[in-house]
Amino acid sequence: MSEATEERGCLGCEADGPTPEEQAAAARRAEIAVSSGFLVSTAAAIALAVTYWRGGQPQLEGLFLAIALGGIGLGFVLWAKRFMPHEPVVEARHPIASSEAEIDAFREEFEQGEVILTRRKLLVRSAGAAMAALGAALLFPIRSLGPRPGAGLKQTPYERGVYLVTADNRRVKAEDVNVDGVLTVFPELPPDPADPHAELRPAEQADSPTLLIRPAEEGEAREGREDWAANGLVAYSKLCTHVGCPVGLYQADKALLLCPCHQSTFDVLDGCRPVFGPATRSLPQLPISIDEQGFVVAEGDFSGPTGSGFWDRDR
Amino acid sequence: MARGDRMITRRVARWMDARTGSAKFARTALGKVFPDHWSFLIGEIALYSFVVLIVTGVYLTFFFDPSVNKVVYDGSYAPLRGVTMTEAYASSLDLSFDVRAGLVMRQMHHWAALLFLAAIIVHLMRVFFTGAFRRPRELNWIVGITLLILAIFNGFAGYSLLDDQLSGTGLRIAYSITLSIPLAGTWLASLLFGGEFPGPDIINRLYVIHILLLPAVIIALLGIHLGLVVRHKHTQFGGRGRTEKNVVGEPVWPRFAFKSIGLMFMTAAVIAALGGLAQINPIWLYGPFEPAEVSSASQPDWYMAWLDGALRIFPAWEIRAGGYEVPAPFFPAVLLAGLTFALLYMWPFLEARFTSDVTEHHLLDRPRNRPVRTCMGTATLAFYTVLTLSGSTDVLATTFGLSVNAVLVGCRVAAVVLPPIVALVTYRLCRELQLRDEEAGMAPPERPRIRWELLRLWEVPARRKEARLARTRSTPID
Fold this sequence. Notes:
The complex is a heterodimer of chains A (315) and B (478).
Chain A lengths: L1 H6 L12 H34 L4 H26 L5 E4 L7 H20 L1 H19 L24 E2 L16 E6 L14 H6 L2 E4 L20 E4 L11 E3 L4 E3 L6 E3 L5 E4 L8 E2 L1 E3 L5 E3 L17
Antiparallel strand pairs in A: 2-3, 3-4, 4-5, 5-10, 6-7, 7-8, 8-9, 11-12
Helix pairs in contact in A: 2-3
Chain B lengths: L2 H18 L1 H10 L1 E2 L6 H21 L8 E3 L11 E3 H11 L4 H28 L8 H23 L4 H15 L5 H9 L8 H31 L3 E2 L8 E6 H26 L5 H4 L18 H9 L5 E3 L2 E3 L3 H26 L7 E2 L6 H20 L2 H8 L3 H36 L24 H11 L4
Parallel strand pairs in B: 4-8
Antiparallel strand pairs in B: 1-5, 2-3, 6-7
Helix pairs in contact in B: 3-5, 3-10, 4-5, 5-6, 5-10, 6-9, 6-13, 7-8, 12-13, 12-14, 14-16, 15-16
């Protein structure tokens, strides 16, 4: 193959300059360049196999694979560039569209069949109805993909008397949260007698993370929520009302909660009202109190659905 | 080639030809002419990245387990030993630490995805700025935009499978965006995730979508995309005997084929080097997904950053009426994305309508000779670049020691102000370059009849008169 192209004298073919000897020398050099690409690749492939065989090492594997592939790539490109003809070739374009005669011929043939269709209107219509019904019926299995979205979106496991526990399932006392401190807590599930290691189920865990905060100064309580704080502690949903990321950062000196995903900022002293960023709604508040033993306990569910908004959230 | 080899090749070819008539077809294929220009390689890079994606991806499927069953990790990565996690995450860790060559394959797969998307976007820009989407190629433009959308979705599905802290946060955002769709959102989210977030089925479903459904559609569309290129024959830039009625270039066999195969190996080589030497998505640092936890600096892959940026900088607007609400994320995440792709799909038809140019074009435009299209393109790029940067407001703030609020406000302003400025600058640059071409004695571009060139007000003042003169010379249609 390559012999043939060399005969056509492509290498330096525009040239009046180089003598045949110079051309031959250039071809020799190019041949060496191309073949060394392939040989380097061969060596790298062997090195890759050895690296793997001796236990593997990610960086070396990547490097040798890159050299093995790159050597072949370089070889092919140089081969093409140095040894293959590159005089431009001209190809004519033909019109994309069919000729009028062809279109007419097609239409005629199609209409022969179409006549059969139009003649028996009942058959066409009933076939259409059957197809449509089948299509509609086949849509129904989609319903199996998930349950009807229900109250779960608006409720969490919190209710009056549910203790607040840490991630490792320990009940929380008021003094566990220092001034300017924040603690992530969850509702405690009633112990399941059948399972001594009962854990929160994921759906509940995903919508019920709560922040227990003790701001340095007492904020303004919302109307109707005057007794929702306990012993200087306030509890708010940890899920940002924007798109549900956990509001993970607390700037204690300004009592601001910041969502690291999209930088929504909530003012803890003002009912966790959004003061900056894309969130539109306050973080829902959880009413809490302290029981006789000093444990923090919920007095009900959150003031609203946690996490991001949805169509019928307010209904 | 030795004589014996030739005999065998010939006999195989004959055998095939006797059963398929392949020789005739193959000869036409070998003789097909491709015009040569560096910008035509970009689409090939996308194609070859996809080849690498398939090869590395198949390898990964042999080890990855898309299950949310909990296991206690006891692999070789010591910091996570004893931690309860899903099998999806545990098998990803095993792939990274205990499967020999697994980490290279995983990182190559991820880098190939990033390169795939990057090449698609640059290819799209090439097609846009040179007008390669015009008749008869509108259909292929539509196929191409669809491929872009599918590639974005499949990329997101892919990195969401690993069930690490970062991917779980991404899925939570995706869930919330789905929820935000008016009327149908809660249903869609429940059907997609199999219930409330995190949903028992989402990883498994994403897996099927990622390795079967979307790749199959992408392969089918790629076939159509390339088939249409063959049918239409490739576009070419004007000059030196190139006309609307011919293609000037090199035949597929052998030079083009060799160069293209070489490009494939080189693309794979770059991906392999990145996969081996440049760490990407170090999931072991993020830990298993816990819904109550989040890490700061949660950035998605680059091709999703514009959406994340839009979520960050879009004003805190929502609509609430009659007890129903359209939550804030709907506007930047659903509406903006929908508009983006709708406009992309419609562009060839919009342009044909506004320029009244519905004829066939096989010669490409130089961007400077279509200043209106070019400036709209650069303005759009500016807008999405600002959005992409906005996806890293927190990182920008910490890197440059600014307040996050200042960066975010800056991004908001830039998203509104920058695109028009870029448009005007581009327009003026195009006109300057055109005038320079004319001074250099090049024939002025043939203009389609344009109804939208209000932008002529921004002509270079000193040259406005000359430009007007040049225009009167160069507008035979008006």
